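[step 3/7] inverse_fold.run input=structure_tokens len=53
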């Protein structure tokens, strides 16, 4: 059986996904960190303050 899953997003819980798919993290899991990106990934957080009425 061959299963291929390609993800094109930042995924902080990639180990959980591999476990869910029953992938051996030492053989079948490939992780590419930010060193492999041609352009740095920018992250920003926007806080929104709301009031309950």
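[step 3/7] decode complete -> sequence:
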């Amino acid at each position: 059986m061959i299963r291929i899953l390609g993800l094109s997003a930042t995924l902080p819980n990639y180990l959980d996904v591999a476990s869910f798919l029953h992938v051996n993290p030492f053989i079948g899991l490939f992780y590419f960190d930010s060193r492999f990106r041609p352009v740095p990934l920018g992250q920003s957080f926007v806080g929104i303050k709301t009031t309950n009425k």
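[step 4/7] annotate
The helical segments are 14-20.
The chain has one domain: 1-38.
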